[in-house]
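Technical annex B. To support the medicinal chemistry partners, we prepared a structural model of the target in complex with zinc ion, based solely on the information shown next.
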Amino acid sequence: MVENSELRKAGLKVTLPRVKILQMLDHAEERHMSAEDVYKALMEAGDDVGLATVYRVLTQFETAGLVVRHNFDGGHAVFELADGDHHDHMVCVDTGEVIEFFDPAIEKRQKEIVEEHGYELVDHNLVLYVKKKGA
Ligand SMILES: [Zn+2]
């Protein structure tokens, strides 16, 4: 199973909860899940993994670089698989829905602004808080 080798590569022992949670993050339609979301999805799938275990495993995954944690305003921390592709996020303030986007013009402009200040860009995290038009 691909999950097993991913765990080993990250230096983590293969345990059933770790495999289940990694599979869930890999196959869920929603790429950004809170610990509660993962817990509920596992329950619905008939997998009996406690919420405390889900928290612990997600934190281990974060430390191992398997997932990225986002602390968006006004909600629980959400986790997504670290697949290497840079993207930014929009968060709907009404529903908490997370939308990913990538805009070359914004990326370029951010670099320019940083350089105008005499720095070079190391990393960035752009979050737009949004609401549906007309809602
Ligand atoms: Zn994302």
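Notes passed to the chemistry partners:
Residues 2-81 form a domain with the Arc Repressor Mutant, subunit A fold (CATH 1.10.10.10).
The pocket of zinc ion is lined by residues 31-32, 80, 87, 89, 100 (CB under 6 Å).
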